[in-house]
Amino acid sequence: MQDWYKKIFFIPIFIFLISITSVLGIPPFESQTATGINILELRIPQTEFIKQNEDVQLNILVFNKTTGLVMDNTAIGCFLDLYNRTGHHRTRTPFNYDGTDFELDIGGGNFSIIGRYGYIVFCNSTTLGGFIAGSFEVTKTGLEDITTVQNNEDEYFLYFVFILAVLILIAAFYKQDHNLASISGMLQIILGGYIIIAGFSTISNNLSNGIGIILIAVGFYILLRSNLENI
């Protein structure tokens, strides 16, 4: 394996790891509830999608898991922790009690940015406690956004092209085939240009532009070097 191949080999892998880390670095909460003894059981409406900037009223019922009795505000207090799409804590707000269940009005300003949000609702007494955690999607319509599905498909295709370029480059290393190296370089240039124009996943424009520029530079270097050595 030639020295310039060795130097360039790990750069696409490094870019791939950066992009994966950026996209998956702050996953939404998985749905979960408290288990064990002395537990309060919380029942909350399962909402997958919320309309952007729309006010939301959240209502929950709380039970003593051992006795099955409904709890009220004379025995417990309940709170909502809301997290934005980047995983940062937005607010902690106490629930009101309306005589039947615990309720909380959440202003639409908390949902001004489209994306996936996480939440934790927890209730406590002096001897009992319980929580429920999950996530929901904020969309323009309050329904599943078909553009999100399309964006996911586009993202998978970008990963496929990138992995294909890396595999071709690996094959070029071991076969000492400059033509294969040239193909890998061209794929990386095209991929980098697309990322700069269209962006990549939910990462910032600056980061996606940086990834695109690096891919173009690496692809151009591979293409130029392989063509020069093939003369």
Strand content range: 25-35%
Task: Give me the Rg, rounded.
Answer: 25 Å
CATH architecture of the largest domain: Sandwich
Q: Helices and strands, in N-to-C order? A: HEEEEEEEEEEHHH
What is the domain tally? 2
The level of helicity is 40-55%
Detailed description of the structure:
The protein is α+β, with helices and mostly antiparallel strands and 231 residues long. It folds into two domains: 3-25 and 146-229, Up-down Bundle (Four Helix Bundle (Hemerythrin (Met), subunit A)); 32-139, Immunoglobulin-like (Sandwich). The strands form two sheets. Strands 1, 3, 5, 6, 9 and 10 form a six-stranded mixed beta sheet that branches. A four-stranded antiparallel beta sheet has the order 2-4-8-7, with no helix packed on it. The protein has four helices and ten strands. The model is unreliable at 1-6 and 20-27 (pLDDT under 50).
Sum up the structure in keywords:
single chain, 231 residues, alpha+beta, Four Helix Bundle (Hemerythrin (Met), subunit A), Immunoglobulin-like, 6-stranded mixed beta sheet, 4 helices, 42% helix, 26% strand, disordered N terminus
Which helices and strands occur, and which strands form pairs?
Blueprint: H1 3-24, E1 32-33, E2 40-43, E3 49-51, E4 56-64, E5 77-83, E6 89-94, E7 96-97, E8 102-106, E9 115-124, E10 129-139, H2 146-175, H3 178-198, H4 205-229
Parallel strand pairs: 3-10
Antiparallel strand pairs: 1-10, 2-4, 4-8, 5-6, 5-9, 7-8, 9-10
Helix pairs in contact: 1-2, 1-4, 2-3, 3-4
Describe the structure concisely for a colleague.
With 231 residues, the chain is an alpha+beta fold. The chain has 2 domains: 3-25 and 146-229, Up-down Bundle (Four Helix Bundle (Hemerythrin (Met), subunit A)); 32-139, Macroglobulin (MG2) domain (Immunoglobulin-like, Sandwich), CATH 2.60.40.1930.
